[in-house]
Every structure is written in C-alpha cells, then in structure tokens.
Amino acid sequence: MTARRKGPGSTTSADRSRVAVLGALSVEPMTGYELRRNIETTIGHFWRESFGQIYPSLASLEAERLITSSPAAREGSRRYRITATGRRRLRDWLVQLGPAAPPRNPLLLQLFFGRQLGDEHCRHLLLTERDRACAMLDTLTAIDLEVRTEAGYEADRPYWLLTIDHGRRTAQAVVEWADAALAALDTP
C-alpha cells in the first residue's frame, strides 16, 4: 500500500498548529509559556491553539531543526528560536494552507432550528451575541492602538493591522446583523 500524498491546501490540524507555532516564533524567540500566552493574546482572536497542541508542535519542530532551543532564565524552561530553515518552511506552509474548513457555528445552528427554542430564547441568544461582538470591538480597538504605537514590530505592523481590521469589521457586521435579526423577530 502506498502512502497517500496530501494535495495543496490539505493540511491536518497538527500541521496547522505547527504553522501557528512557527509563525509566532518568527516574530521573536519565546519560551513555551510565553508562546502560549502570545498566541492567546494575538492570533487567539482568530486562531485557537490549545496547550496540548503547542508543546508537541515545539518538540516536532525542534526535531526537524526548524527551531532551536536553549535554557531560559526560569529553571526547567527553554527559549525557542526559529532557524533559517524554519523561516523557509514557514513560508512554504503558509502558501499551502488552503481554505478554511467550513465553520461550526452553534448560534446559527440554534437559530436555524429556532422554532424549537422559541422567539424569547432566540432573542436572548442574539442579544448575547451582540454583546460579545461589542466587547470584541472594544478589545480590538485597544489592540489596534497598542499595535500602532508599540516599537520594535514595524515590519509586522501592516499585516497585524490587516487582521485587526478584519476582526473589527466582522464584529461590526455581527452587531448590525444581530440588530436586524432582533427586528425581524419582532415583526409579525
């Protein structure tokens, strides 16, 4: 039996985790803890990585010599740094990521079968989603200001601002959609 090769854009969850970890390390060297925290506070607004995905990714990336590590200040901790080969591999992987998997949106599933829940419950769901989107707008506005003023990341700034703008526009669209959906539920 021959191994089936993955076509362009067909990456596994583990592959995508490795891309996220390698990408984060392309910005600056970090310990595993710093990496986890960095992913949560930066790309975590649009990309999730669990603790259980980060450390195995670090181990495999180091085994492939795409990153190196050295002892960190905290005993037992290691600081990881991307290698030149890792930068080349990151670029190749980013080019091949392909389209996103279809989303699984519990809110839309609930609303699609909203007759089973009733209008009042659906209103509550919509108000909760609207509040979440408003909070995300506030968060992304603060992050935008921080990114625009933080020194040392000038080369990454334009790209980071693109992702922040996407998040803000998406959150604003959710607010507008929730308002329209609430109005539609109130129309007999």
CA-CA gap between termini: 61 Å
Catalogue the unreliable spans. Answer: 1-10
**Beta-strand proportion:** 5-15%
Identify the quaternary structure here: single chain
Helical/strand content category? mainly alpha
**Beta-strand segment tally:** 3
Q: What is the topological layout?
A:
Layout: H1 13-27, E1 30-31, H2 32-41, H3 51-63, E2 67-71, E3 78-82, H4 84-96, H5 106-112, H6 114-117, H7 119-149, H8 157-186
Antiparallel strand pairs: 1-3, 2-3
Helix pairs in contact: 1-3, 1-4, 7-8
Description:
This protein is mainly alpha-helical and 188 residues long. It has eight helices and three strands; from the N terminus they run αβααββααααα. The protein has helices at residues 13-27, 32-41, 51-63, 84-96, 106-112, 114-117, 119-149, 157-186, and strands at residues 30-31, 67-71, 78-82. It has a three-stranded antiparallel sheet. The protein is elongated. The relative contact order is 0.11.
